[in-house]
Amino acid sequence: MDNLGWGLQITALGMGLVFGLLALLWGLLTLVQRWDRPAVAASRVEAAPAAEEGMDPALVAAIVTAALAHRAHRRREAAPAMRSHWPGSQLYASRWVAAGRARQNQSWQRRGRG
Amino acid sequence: MTTPTPDPLQVLREMRSRAVLGGGTQRIEQQHARGKLTARERLALLLDEGSFQEFGALATHQVSQFGLDKQRFPGDGIVTGFGKISGRRVAVFAQDFTVLGGSFSEVQAHKISRIQDLALDSGIPLIGLNDSGGARIQEGVRSLAAYGEVFVRNVMASGVIPQISLILGPCAGGAVYSPALTDFIIMAGDSCMFLTGPDVIQAVTGEQVSAQELGGPEVHTGRSGVAHLSAATEGAALTLAKQLLAYLPQNNNEDPPQVRPEDPATRMDEALNTLIPADESQPYDMRDAIDAIFDRDSFLELQPQFAPNALIGFARLDGHSVGIVANQPACMSGVLNIDASDKIARFIRICDAFNVPLLTFVDCPGFLPGTDQEYGGVIRHGAKIIYAYCEATVPKVSIVTRKAMGGAYVAMGSKQMRTDLAFAWPTAQIAVMGAAPAVRVLYRDQVRTAADPAQREAELVAEYREQFFNPYRAADVGQIDEVIEPCETRPRLVRALEILRTKVQQNPPKKHGLSPT
Questions:
Q1: Is the C-alpha dihedral spanning B61, B66, B72, B75 positive or negative?
Q2: Once rounded to an integer, what is the mean pLDDT over residues B236-260?
Q3: CATH of span B270-428+470-500
């Protein structure tokens, strides 16, 4: 029975320590979150008057239109930022295609010439 | 007392400064006054900022006759080198009109040939900016031989690396053959191309014609079909060149650049289901179908004014580059004629050379009848389409939207042209010939002996249409793989090309085929 009591004491102490530390961490995170929040709100508050004061809605619309036109132009030119793969890079992902292309481009050679 | 040795670095810097000025500030101002840019300004617009590396900037000619010894300019009227367009390596040359009118010299040929050799060895596209008054007469036969040096390299590079020519000024005499041997020609502003100029024409034939009427962009993009695209300004022409290059690979071993798809592959445009008019004699614009099926704003039509009864161009499907060949029912009912055949056949071969899958939209009542066409050789011109389709080994998919009659059906991407997949819309009419002529051939006696021949003929035409004017007979015999709803076309094509992306087909070994001419 002595051992059981000792065991229960150690268990309670261990679990208490773990839960205690978890609670401490939770508290710390909550504090950090509260500390961060006003800063975000402040930047939003600061940005709003700037948009209201300096940006004519027509100008905003013009900028958006220009940005979209520029993006479409870059797509048409397949600019690097718009590409999914570097040109030619996919070819080597398939040995079938790479070997096949090599054969296709040698079709003018006579049969039996390596 | 010895004279001080000039600082070698100072000497080099002075020579480079002279080279940058071309024919001098006065000539540059004259060029600007004509509304034209200098060679270096053009290259600055074409290439990525800071990417240009020049070669041969200090080369000069060694001719002393006709006072040429007093007219030596570093570079000799041409700027050559390497640069990048959207991060892709390209070889470029730009003729400088400020130096002796950009006249073509032996040194120019050496510089162009050097760039052509390096481009071919490196497997990178070549872009030439042409602005030259013609051969440098003072150099005599050396100038003519110089042309030949460039031509042979154009031919060797043909089908291996993309070659794009921009005509940004005059391009006359033998000089026209180098652009003509390249894959694409883009003309700008008041540029012109002709073999013999207005003065020679007037002297020989007495015919009076201006340079623009003889070989301006309107002539070559509309009537002759020599040029593929034109632009009002040099800047716009250079932009077109960049856009065109975006659909092409670096060389014949590689694939064209892929763009991240933004248009969903499964998008279905319901408007396609009502695109074909109920009345079969009513035209519709095939461009509407193309715009609805392919990635938004991705269609770059080539030769839009030449043979407008056929459409060719590049587009993107799920971000991948594809070549589109189509009949245009909005013009001459989409018939095939001599010019349309040439236009289509050439484009098929370009796509095949550069690994661009081919998608064919068929709405063609047949070949244009008439003595003009027969005397002009419509047989051999039409045969070019068949030859090109049969020879092509890239993925090929055809879609019959409405009429596919007779020889035109066979030529325009039938299964026998080694088309990989053939789709048809429910509005497709696949038959040997139109209903009325077919009835006249098949039931001539029956119609003649009928109590009311007109009534009987109308009945027989209706019967023939019921039987043959649909895609289902063709589907029965395997000529059509699947009849699809028009709005399904985009997802179907995306999936079809996904399967065919690794297609490899090899033609029998030969020195070269003998394509009809």
A1: negative
A2: 94
A3: 3.90.226.10
Of all residues in chain B, the one with the smallest CA distance to A75 is: B259
What is the least distance, in Å, from the CA of A44 to any CA of chain B? Answer: 31
B36-245 topology per CATH: 2-enoyl-CoA Hydratase; Chain A, domain 1 (3.90.226)
Q: Is B174 a catalytic residue?
A: yes
Query: Of the candidates A79, A88, A102, which has its C-beta nearest B86's C-beta?
Result: A79
Q: What is the pTM assigned to this prediction?
A: 0.85
| HSE, side-chain direction, 13 A CA sphere, residue B184 | 30
For residue B26, which amino acid is it?
A: Q
- Cβ-based interface (< 8 Å): residues of A facing B: 72, 75-80, 82-85, 87-88, 90-91, 94, 96-97, 99-105, 107-111
**B7-25 as b/e: b if 16+ CB within 10 A:** eeeeeeeeeeebbebbbee
Quote the tokens at residue B61: 């000619």
Which candidate, B26, B133, B23, B134, places its Cα nearest to that of B79? B23
pLDDT score for B141: 80
B359: β partners? B324, B397
Q: Chain B residue with minimal CA distance to A96?
A: B502
Q: Provide, as residue numbers in chain B, all residues whose Cβ is less than 8 Å from the Cβ of A97.
A: 501-502, 504
pLDDT at B150: 94
Task: Tell me the per-residue pLDDT of B261-288, one tens digit each, with 9 for 90 and over.
Answer: 989 999 999 999 999 999 888 999 999 9
Active-site residue flag, B413: no
Cα distance between residue B434 and residue B39, in whole Å: 56
Whole-number Å distance between alpha carbons of B28 and B34: 10
pLDDT value at position A113? 47
Q: Which of B56, B81, B169, B173 is catalytic?
A: B173
Active site residue B408: yes
DSSP B57: T
Active site residue B123: no
Per-domain residue ranges of chain B: 36-245, 270-428+470-500, 434-468
Could you tell me the mean pLDDT of each successive run of 10 residues in chain A, 114 residues long?
83 92 92 72 50 79 93 90 76 80 72 47
Give the H/E segment covering residue B343. Answer: helix B338-353
Cα torsion angle, A95, A101, A102, A104, sign: positive
A46 exposure class (CB count in 10 Å sphere: 0-12, 13-18, 19+): exposed
Chain B nearest C-alpha distance from A67 (Å): 16
